[in-house]
Amino acid sequence: MRIVIPLFDRFTALDAVGPYEVLKFLPGVEIVFAATEPGPVRDVPRWLAITADATFTDIDSCDVLVVPGGPGARELLRDGELLDWLRRMHQGSIWTTSVCTGSLLLGAAGLLTGLSATTHWAAIDVLESFGATYTAERVIFQGKIVTAAGVSSGIDMALALAARITDQTTAEAIQLAIEYDPQPPFDAGSPAKASRAARALLARGIR
Known about the structure:
Pfam families: DJ-1_PfpI. Keywords: Lyase. There is one protein chain. The protein has helices spanning 13-23, 71-74, 80-92, 102-108, 124-129, 153-165, 168-177, 196-204; strands spanning 2-6, 30-35, 39-42, 49-52, 54-55, 64-67, 95-99, 116-117, 133-134, 139-142, 145-148. By secondary structure, it is α/β, with parallel strands linked by helices. The protein has one domain (2-182): Class I glutamine amidotransferase (GATase) domain (Rossmann fold, 3-Layer(aba) Sandwich), CATH 3.40.50.880. A seven-stranded mixed β-sheet has the order 5-2-1-6-7-11-10, with helices on both faces. Strand 8, helix 5 and strand 9 (133-134) form a beta-alpha-beta unit. Helix 6 runs antiparallel to helix 7 (168-177). The radius of gyration is 16 Å and the shape is globular.
C-alpha cells in the first residue's frame, strides 16, 4: 500500500508527521513524501524540514493520499498543476484524506462539492466557498474522502483510517505504540472553550 503525503513550503509539520507516525505501522505500507522538487521542504516558521524523496511528476498513483495544511496551503488554491495532480491521485486512490487546511486544497480541486467536511476553525468560510458544508467534528468520512479538523486531529484521522484499512485491534495497538492517551492540561482546544484572553493573544500573534 502506497501512502503519499504532498509537501509544500510553509506546511504545518504535525499535519504531516501526526498521520505518518500512525500509518507507518500498517503492514506492507510504503510512505512517500512528495513535492515539486526532491529535497528538504520547510514548515512554518521554516525551522523544521522534511525531505521529499519524490516529485509530484514521479507519482502517478497512490492508495492513500494525505494532504496536510498550513499557511502555504492557502497560497496554492489556484495552483493548477497541483490541483490537477490532486485530482489524478484521487481518481485512483482508495482513500483521499486531509488534515487542517489541507481540506481547502481538496475543495479547490473540486473534490468536496456537496460533501460535509471539516478544517481548522479559522478557515471555515474558505472551505464552504468551495461548496462543502462545514461540520464541527474531529474527523469526517464521506465515501472515500476523509477530512480532519485542525493540526492535532490528524492523529485521530489516521487511527480511524487505520481501523478501516485493517481492523480496530490493529488501530488500538498502533495507538498504544505511540501512547496516544490525550490528557491536555487545559480545556482550550476550540474557540468555544478557550478563554477570552487566550483568543485575544492568538489574534495578536503568540510570538
